[in-house]
Structure to design on (450 residues):
């Protein structure tokens, strides 16, 4: 037990919810979700997304938290404790690798938020039309080294917070700022839906057309769910290990899933009506969000100030997410390889700066960093989000359902009988049978139904 006392932990119930929600809510909601939705059929994608959240969100998230709190270990250590000398620690290793891969391309876009804070402060959007704003975005994201520099700064910031440790680092950042982000999204949403021509955007978002859905869209929807909820690579195992024995894991999973989904849907309501109103195509990809948002602020009283606040909050939302990615890697290095926290953070950040540079540079015009028609940036995103996370999630639910077992699962979610946890039987049933089946089915349908 001596070891347990030495581990860092979250200070309050709000602490774990805030930190897990901080990890979940980020560029995945405000940048990636609208991109994916725009490229994969609009409302039909949204419905599939919500269905998968409902079905897989709580069970997978709860499985991870349970494993983490039960073992008080990092993603690799947890499986080593529960199933030594078996295949299972592989799930943890894959998670650590996946964390590095995601951090590498996620930090590219995180760096953009810093550039956009500068653009907002210097009032560089003022009076510009769409063509000029698009031009600025393209010049910047194809700029190569400028992009790499912001990215490196962002990775450094993440390293700084993670190095300071869980309690005085992660928790403080998440608590106040995420609700503020929600408020500003509501303000933006109201402006967006009242723009001329906004109706078409709302129809795109809410009137499903299932004829456009093929396997690619289904796989993307599942990947987006895992990505947005930070599931499938051990973030929630690691954070679960910092949770107090008296906290309620089920309500934590529920609150995190709900708030994350709310922010994603809100981001959709902000982006699409405005995009349609300005004539930005939903399939615009990277530019969709970074061009639409400044355009909305240009149409708003007080837009200058709101725009600064928005990009600062977006950067912080990204930061609380990158913190969780890095934390998985650092917790693994310190606890399994016995390297101190400072060195571990430096090593992980250095690796990410290097890999991340490839992701950023692959966005330059005429870049040679293209494999099979995809940039390194897209490739990292696709492999980690659409393949590795769902496989990680599949293995985690199979592990909890078939190896960890009902008894220990019930004991963990009910805090050894202290809580009622009325949903535990249903959730366990989903974990054991339905969730694995659903993940496999989505993969199979994606492979067949192209
Ligand atoms: N969920 C975060 C977002 O939506 C990104 C993220 C943080 C993540 N940690 C993760 C994604 C772990 C997958 C796995 O922005």
């Amino acid at each position: 037990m001596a070891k347990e006392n030495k581990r860092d932990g979250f200070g309050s119930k709000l602490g774990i919810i805030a930190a897990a929600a901080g990890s979940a809510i980020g560029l995945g909601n405000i940048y990636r979700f609208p991109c994916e939705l725009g490229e994969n059929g609009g409302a039909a994608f949204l419905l599939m997304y919500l269905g998968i959240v409902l079905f897989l969100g709580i069970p997978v998230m709860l499985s991870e938290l349970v494993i983490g709190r039960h073992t008080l270990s990092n993603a690799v250590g947890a499986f080593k404790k529960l199933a030594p000398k078996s295949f299972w620690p592989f799930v943890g290793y894959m998670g650590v690798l996946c964390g590095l891969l995601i951090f590498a391309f996620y930090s590219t876009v995180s760096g953009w938020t810093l550039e956009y804070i500068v653009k907002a402060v210097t009032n560089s959007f003022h009076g510009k039309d769409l063509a000029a704003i698009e031009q600025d975005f393209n010049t910047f994201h194809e700029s190569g080294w400028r992009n790499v520099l912001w990215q490196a700064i962002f990775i450094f910031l993440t390293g700084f917070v993670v190095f300071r440790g869980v309690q005085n680092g992660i928790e403080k950042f998440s608590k106040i700022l995420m609700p503020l982000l929600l408020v500003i999204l509501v303000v933006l949403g109201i402006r967006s839906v009242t723009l001329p021509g906004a109706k078409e955007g709302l129809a795109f978002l809410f009137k499903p057309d299932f004829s456009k859905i093929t396997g690619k869209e289904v796989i993307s929807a599942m990947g987006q769910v895992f990505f947005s909820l930070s599931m499938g690579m051990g973030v929630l195992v690691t954070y679960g290990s910092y949770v107090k024995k008296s906290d309620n894991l089920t309500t934590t999973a529920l609150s995190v899933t709900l708030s994350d989904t709310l922010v994603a849907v809100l981001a959709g309501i902000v982006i699409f009506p405005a995009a349609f109103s300005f004539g930005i195509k939903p399939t615009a990809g990277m530019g969709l969000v970074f061009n639409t948002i400044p355009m909305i602020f240009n149409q708003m009283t007080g837009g200058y100030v709101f725009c600064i606040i928005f990009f600062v909050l977006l950067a912080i939302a990204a930061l609380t997410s990158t913190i969780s990615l890095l934390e998985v890697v650092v917790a693994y290095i310190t606890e399994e390889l016995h390297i101190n926290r400072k060195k571990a953070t430096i090593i992980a950040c250095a690796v990410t700066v290097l890999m991340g540079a490839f992701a950023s540079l692959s966005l330059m015009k005429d870049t040679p960093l293209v494999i099979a028609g995809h940039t390194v940036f897209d490739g990292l995103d696709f492999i980690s989000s659409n393949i590795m996370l769902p496989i990680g999630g599949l293995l985690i639910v199979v592990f909890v359902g078939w190896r960890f077992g009902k008894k220990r699962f019930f004991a963990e979610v009910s805090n050894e009988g202290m809580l009622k946890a009325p949903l535990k039987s249903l959730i366990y049933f989903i974990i054991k049978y339905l969730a694995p089946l659903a993940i496999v089915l989505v993969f199979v349908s994606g492979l067949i139904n192209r």
